[in-house]
Amino acid sequence: MTVPTPLPKRPFANGRRQVTRLGLGLAALGRPGYINLGHANDYADGRSVEAMQQRAFAVLDAAWDAGVRYFDAARSYGRGEAFLGAWLAARQIPPDAVTVASKWGYTYTADWRVDADKHEVKDHRLPVLERQWQETGANLGGWLDLYQIHSATFDSGVLEAADVHTALARIKDRGVLIGLTLSGPDQAAVLECALAVEVDGVPLFDAVQATWNLLEPSAGPALAAAHAAGLGVVIKEALANGRLTSRNTDPDFSATSRMLADLAQERNVGIDSMALAGALAQPWADVVLSGAATTAQLRSNLKAAALDWDDRAADMAQALAEPPDAYWHTRSTLAWN
């Protein structure tokens, strides 16, 4: 590993952490199957645990060398936490040199198979939190900065679960930030309810991670309000699971994305870089996650940090936006591969 020049940082969660604007998520690095378009093409060197750990280390090394200091995992990302923890230990990264986030609430069930009937099972009850908190601690130890409810929704009941809130408040008392991640067309409404959750008069949540991209920007106003209230804001799925990359060959998308492709070509970058630049341009976005599965993808993603977001780009973004229900329906049809 080289000695890098870190990316610029900004305050996060009312200044309790300093974070780089770009981060790396391990959803596509910690397990052999994921729903990103063309994900299967990224594993010509095999999908054994050993091969995937080597790949994860290579991408993590590239991220570190580029100055990335924010890393995001989850219990359901196969061995994502274990890979990240092993890399942090092997590279002797000081805990205060990085911000590490993970999540609880989904259990990985695919048994390292891409063709599994179910890849993960969601359960937001207290026994799952207690078990997964111990597992996360074994993997990430003193590096963990932020622990998040994975995909909080109304139907999971987690926003009304006082026993879960109390347990999370105890974790918070240890100095770990508490957050939640969102998914689906109700992201804004769920976030509004989450902002009202308190334990002993103290707001529970310090951060929120949500889907925001050029196709699905509807959570933007709610995320801006959360940021104004002091929460750290993390953007996930900024590339719409590959739909905002050159791998999207859908004729309908191609017809509506000409301006995006033209802007990327003018700037000599990929579509992915422009899409990530759009996320970085949101003033309330503290961290934008790359979900790269290869070093080449990561390097292309990171070019977003040097791009300007002008009026032409803003006009293009308005033209690309889809109705939230349509976006989430399309996402639900993406195949694990």
TrEMBL record:
CDD domains linked to this entry = AKR_unchar
Which intervals hold domain NADP-dependent oxidoreductase?
53-316
Pfam families from the UniProt entry: Aldo_ket_red (PF00248)
Q: What is this protein called?
A: Aldo/keto reductase
Q: Which organism is it from?
A: Thiohalocapsa halophila
